[in-house]
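Obj: model holo form, ligand = pyridoxal-5'-phosphate.
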Amino acid sequence: MKIQPAQRLDGVQVTLIRRIMAEAPPGAINLGLGQTNEPIPQPMIEAAAKAAYGSGGYALNAGFAELREKIGEWYRVDKDRVIVTVGVQEAISVVMFGLVNPGDDVLVPNPGFPVYATLARMAGGNPVEWCPTIENRFRPTWPDVEKALTPNTRLVVLASPGNPTGAVAEDDEWKRIGCELEARGIPWFSDEIYIPFQHSEHEHMSMWRHSRFGVIASGMSKTHGIAGWRLGWLIVPDELVQPFLALHQHLVTSAATIVQRAAIAGLTKEGQAAIKALSARLKEKRAIAIAALEEGGWDIVSGDGAFYLMVRHPNWSDDLALCRHLMREAGVITIPGRAFGSGGEGLLRVSYSVDVAVLKSAIGAMSAAVAEQSDADSSGK
Ligand SMILES: Cc1ncc(COP(=O)(O)O)c(C=O)c1O
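Output (holo C-alpha cells):
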C-alpha cells in the first residue's frame, strides 16, 4: 500500500528550472543561475558569526525591531507594517494563503516566476494569466493587465523587473497599474526582489510609493548574495498586519535569528552603496552579454533589469531542445522559456551574473553550437 499525497499537490512538481539544473553535465558553465556570484558582504558574515555565539532563542514573530525599522525606512513606513520572512518565497505563500479564497481568480504574469500560479492554486484560487507582450519587450502595461481582469479577480501579481524577462515597467505605466487596480478595489501584489537592478533610463519606484492598496515583497537573496540564507520581507497595509503575522507564525515562527542579525548589518548606508555598485557591475555585464550574443546571431527579446536576458536564435524554435543542445554541445546551462509559462516558449533565459571571462566564453560556445546545427537538423536524429 502506498501513501497518497494530498490532492492539492496534484500536478505540483519541482520547477523545470531545478530539473534542468539536475540534468546539466558536470562542469557545465551556469548561465541558468537565479543569483549573483557576489561574495557576502564582510560585515554580514561577522554579524552572523557573532550571533551564532549568542542566544539561540526564538525571535519575535515579525522579526527583530531594529531590522524592521531599517526595512521600514526604505519604504517610509512604520516598522509595524513590516514582517520579516524566510525569503520572498515565504512572503508569496503568506500572500496567497492570506488573501485568496477558494474560487478566486489570481492574475499571474506569463511569462513569470512559476511559484505564483502554483501557490495561488494550492490556496484554492484559479491562476489567470496576464501577458505582457513580446512586441513591448515584455514590459508590463495597464492594458495587458486590464485585458485579463475577470469579475472574480481577487489579486493581481506584478513583478518589475520581472523574472525571467528582466523587463522593467515605465514608471507612469507602473503607477497607472497600481492606481487603476486600487480604483477597482482589486489588491495588487508586487514582487520587488529585483528593484535595485534597473539598467535602462526607465527606472521606476516601489509600487508602495504609488498605491497602498496592496502588498510588497522583497528580500536580500539577490542584492546581498545570501539566497541560501533565506531572508525576505512583506510590507502590508494596517488591516493585514495581524492576520498575516498569525499565518507567518503558524508557517515558520520567524526568520532565522542569525540571518536577521546579518541582515541588520547589511542594511546600512555602506550596504546601500554596495548594492548600487553591484547594479553598476551588472549593467556592464549586460552590455558585454548583449554585444557577444548579437555577434553570435542571437536576438535579444527583453532584459532591462535584474540580471536576465530573454533571447532567441533564428535557427531554433524549440526552447527545450535548444537548452539541451547547448548543455550537450556547448557545456552551457540556460533555462528554457517554457519553464516560465507558454509566453516564454521559443526563448531562453540567460543570466549574466557571472565573471566576465566566463560570460564571454560561454556565449562564444553557445553561438558556435547554434551555428553548426539547427532545430531542423536535430529533429531528424
Ligand atoms: C521574481 C522572484 N521572486 C522571488 C524569488 C525567491 O526569492 P527568495 O530567495 O527571497 O525566496 C525569486 C528567486 O529566483 C524570484 O526570481
